[in-house]
Amino acid sequence: MARRPRGQLRQDILDTVIDLLMDTGDVASVSIDTIVDRVGCTPPALYYYFPTKNELLWQACEAEFAKLADHIEDGVSGDGPARQLIELEQRGTALLQWAAEHPALYHILFMGSGRDGLIRGNTWDDPGLLATMGNVQACIDQGLIRAEVDAQLITLSLWATVHGFASLTVSFRHIPVPVVELGMVTAWLPLLRSLLTPLGLQHYEQMHSSPVDETSQNAGADRP
């Protein structure tokens, strides 16, 4: 067997762990024996990079969280005076679409059994959550959201709403994604209307000045 390039074995192990997690949907069912058999290495070679199974699972999931954060950032391209509001909505849409495209991986990272051991540190260390709170705080600083509200609480409320609809699209695959997206935006409306200043409300209404009929017409389309 040809020798792997330096560092390739480590990446092959991480990729295999994610594949097994998506195949089984259960952290507990992923064994070291199965991993090394599929990768084609020995247990000592695996333990050279990952001293424990928990460390291996954690690093594999952390790598996927980082990829998700990059995906969301790629979907953010706000501009103009309503940039921060636009980016807030784009972050939610990007996460929801990613969940629809990667249902098994979303389930493992956010909904799977046994995932408590894969989470370390503070929730607010999550780069995606911090970026969302950055948009919220910028909205406050720019007079789009009322100054007396708590940026962290708003962020958590928006985050919970997005993940609620993301889990919906993962659990009920027969619901077309455009319907779920429209539901998410609709759920945000009363929350944002209660938080936005007159200037923020003006910008938000301009963002949605085009009719939603096109979205509604496409809502019945089947998923690819």
**What is the radius of gyration?**
21 Å
Q: Spans with pLDDT under 50 lasting ≥5 residues? A: 211-221
What is the average per-residue confidence, as pLDDT, rounded to a whole number?
85
Strand content: under 5%
The end-to-end distance, rounded to whole angstroms, is 39 Å
Report the oligomer: single chain
CATH topology of the largest domain: Tetracycline Repressor, domain 2
Element pattern in H and E: HHHHHHHHHHH
The structural class is mainly alpha
Enumerate how many helices there are, as a single number. Answer: 11
Form type: elongated
> How would you characterize the largest beta sheet?
none
CATH architecture of the largest domain: Orthogonal Bundle
Total count of strands: 0
Measured as a percent range, the helix fraction is 55-70%
Number of domains: 2
Keywords:
224 residues; mainly alpha; Arc Repressor Mutant, subunit A; Tetracycline Repressor, domain 2; 2 domains; 11 helices; 68% helix
Detail the topology: elements first, then pairings.
Blueprint: H1 8-24, H2 32-39, H3 43-49, H4 53-74, H5 83-101, H6 103-111, H7 127-141, H8 151-171, H9 177-195, H10 198-207, H11 213-218
Plain-language structure description:
The structure is a single chain. The chain folds into 2 domains: 1-51, Arc Repressor Mutant, subunit A (Orthogonal Bundle); 62-218, Tetracycline Repressor, domain 2, CATH 1.10.357. The chain is built from 11 helices and no strands. With 224 residues, it is mostly helical. It is elongated. 68% of the residues lie in helices and 0% in strands. α5 (83-101) packs parallel to α8 (151-171), α5 (83-101) runs antiparallel to α9 and α7 packs across α8. Mean pLDDT is 85; it is low at 211-221. The two termini are 39 Å apart.
